[in-house]
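Incident review: delayed structure delivery

Summary: a single-chain prediction request sat in the queue longer than the usual turnaround. Root cause was a stuck worker, restarted by the on-call engineer. No data loss occurred. The affected request and its eventual output are reproduced below so the record is complete for anyone auditing the incident later.

Affected input:
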Amino acid sequence: NKIGRFSGNLQVALMNNKKINFITQMGFTYKNGTTNILKRDYQYTTIEIDIQTKKINYIDIKDNQLNGFNIGRDTSANLSSEENYSVLECINELLEQGYHPNNITIEKPFSSGSAGKDIYLDILVSFPNDYHIEEKRNNTYMMIEVKKKSEYSKTIKDSFLTKNNGEPKSQLLSYLQQDKNAEYIVYYTSYNNGELKRQYHF
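Output delivered after worker restart:
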């Protein structure tokens, strides 16, 4: 059915355009000489996005100590996952507010306890090593758990529940048990079908 195939392809194109528009709302523009790389320069770092491969290039501190993020693993760089558009927008907001990428960890690993494998916090923000209160230097300032819009409300409700083994149902509370220095824990979402609609809960 030619009409059916055409409609399907058109729908995919429209979805892609919505996501590109979401990214450009954050100040990303096409890198000179390219038609597939969106780029934004910040005060301390640069982020590039390949819209063909749907991959984000966050500079890793292992490769660039001056301008890099701490990166626990790279699944947040995959824009095939809707949640990662909200992760990107949250990081964009932190950088706009003046946070240094050295003090932002993307996918910080934590122990899952009884499950026996690592679980990953989406974004951890730490105090800088020259913070004016010495005992807070390099300690955790904020933990941010990012969710898809469709999962956001349920995740907040789950934060009040526990599993049968007594562990918190919320992963964010599990992270807090392992790092009690955190001053804030935050649930966050912003991508809503191509529109930027920011929601967060402390």
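Verification: The CA atoms of residues 30 and 148 lie 26 Å apart.
Action items: add queue-age alerting; document worker restart procedure.
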